[in-house]
Specification:
This protein is an alpha+beta fold. It has a single domain (7-212), classed as Pseudouridine synthase (2-Layer Sandwich), CATH 3.30.2350.10. The chain contains 4 helices and 11 strands, in the order ββαββαβββββαββα.
């Protein structure tokens, strides 16, 4: 697609891009670009996101290039058949036994809260690496539900907020945001093929990944 939006998968109907942190998925932000607007301009046609990533979150995002599978794609999303796996860089040493976070979340005024009256949210966690010197962890998150800011709130709820999170973090200054949509898995609505797409983390993650012994990932 472009240097700013690398293409991870493309056919005549679907497009998967590696979204950078700081770019909206859709809509407008004071006249700034979004994934949709950049993709539409590049392809000279109307391209739409099938799901959204937070502005600060980088990684794999699925778009449709036409209306051919609009209903089928909506059903895939609604029925949680788009499997989204995230990498998160978090504060502190994440305890390996903490592999499941379940709570009720409510979203209002641009912020998500843990609230008894909220909607159920479930995230499973796998620890990938620890950096004891920097007191950071690299974890893999699988969102079983799709609540707004779910990954960020669940990390903060566990006492290990995402590095660089301005809303739910611990207030330390960072030059990057530590949440990345690492992998998408789904069945293609046209061909029936099982699609698995892996997105490389942003380049500014490299020092942290080297510290974890995970460079070139």
């Amino acid at each position: 697609m472009t240097a700013e939006l690398p293409t991870l998968f493309e056919d005549q109907d679907l497009l998967i891009l590696n979204k950078p942190s700081g770019l909206l998925s859709e809509g407008a932000d004071g006249g700034n670009s979004s994934v949709e607007s950049l993709a539409s301009d590049a392809l000279r046609k109307d391209v739409r996101c099938c799901h959204r990533l937070d502005k600060l979150t980088s990684g794999a995002i699925l778009l449709r290039k036409n209306k051919r599978f609009t209903r089928e794609l909506a059903q895939i999303i609604e029925n949680h058949r788009l499997r989204k796996t995230y990498w998160a860089l978090t504060r502190g040493i994440w305890p390996k036994p903490l592999n499941r976070i379940e709570s009720h979340l409510s979203h209002r005024a641009g912020r998500t809260f843990v609230a008894p009256e909220g909607k159920p949210a479930l995230t499973t966690v796998r620890v990938l690496a620890h950096d004891t010197a920097q007191e950071r962890s690299l974890i893999e998150l699988l969102l079983k539900t799709g609540r707004t800011h779910q990954a960020r709130v669940h990390c903060a709820e566990a006492g290990h907020p995402v590095v660089g999170d301005p809303q739910y973090g611990a207030g330390e200054a960072d030059d990057f945001f530590g949440l990345h949509a690492r992998e998408l898995k789904f069945r293609h609505p046209g061909s029936g093929e099982n699609i698995t797409i892996v997105a490389a983390p942003p380049i500014n993650w490299e020092p942290c990944l080297r510290a974890f012994g995970l460079e070139n990932n």
